[in-house]
Design goal:
Elements lengths: L1 H7 L6 H13 L6 H8 L4 E6 L8 H13 L3 E6 L4 H13 L4 E5 L5 H10 L3 E4 L9 E4 L2 H14 L5 E5 L3 H16 L6 E4 L6 H14 L5 E4 L2 H13 L9 E6 L12 E4 L2 H16 L8 E3 L3 E3 L5
Parallel strand pairs: 1-2, 1-3, 3-4, 4-5, 5-11, 6-7, 6-8, 8-9, 9-10
Antiparallel strand pairs: 10-12
Helix pairs in contact: 4-11, 5-6, 7-8, 9-10
Length: 312
Amino acid sequence: MTVSRAINHPERLNPKTLQRVRDAIASMRYVPNALASGLRLSRARLVAALLPTLVGPVFQELIQSLDHALNQHGYQLMIGRTGYDAAQEADLIRAIIQRRPDGIVMIGMAASEEGRALLQASRIPVVETWDLTDTAIDMLVGFSHSAIGQAVAAHFIAKGHRQLGMVSGDDARARVRVAAYAQAAQAAGLPEVTVAYTPAPSTLGGGRRGLAEILAQRPEVTAVFCSSDTLALGALVEAQHQGLQVPQQLAVVGLGDQEFAKDTAPPLTTVRLDGTRIGQLAADMIVARTLDQAVDAQRVDIGFSITQRSSG
């Protein structure tokens, strides 16, 4: 019975007992039949996460936290890439539902009506993340991209900047940030924001090209918001290439507060997003549902903060 609990209900054993059983299982090279166990318990011990890209560090913190938290409860994480493509996402959702995972975590909102309909009809617990909406499929933990755009514009305006630019990805969330950033600038009586779009996923080269495009159109721009730290790093490189001092002649703010942000030259001012907390909360929600426990809050706004460093 203890071995069965260690495999199927590890949360019911104290840590010392659980570790002893796991050590014994490992010494015997025993691999349980997950299919048979899943049929008996009506659980697959599998959670799927769908994310737009596997390139770059943007979602790494969230995925690592989600994986770690699920592992603590005996669940494995399966990852699928949507490629920022609605049709590809719908196909992937369909394929994942056929495997009947215990839960599905979306990095972002479902991009198509077909995908949303499939998830709603599946009756599988779903957590959407990395965004906020009033029309969530099921559970939600994230932050407002509109509020981020407004906050960065206010940050620049408070520092006296009046000529704003933005290097942005071209996905739906990025466009929400662009709109809010531009609207905040307009509301403050500033000239129209100059925006350069770069295809997802973000690259250093995209950041360089984006800043070069902005400065070619409006050399008077003195502050640029980049929709990822990778794009911001590219903008810093391009600013150096063009002989511009940061932040004296050009302020740069990124998004994500990635590990490298504090080590750029100059250190990057950026919007901090708590991917670790999102991953933990998403895992908690899925596990609670599989155990038929109440979820404390089905919609959680974790917010964000601007980490002030030297670049802007």
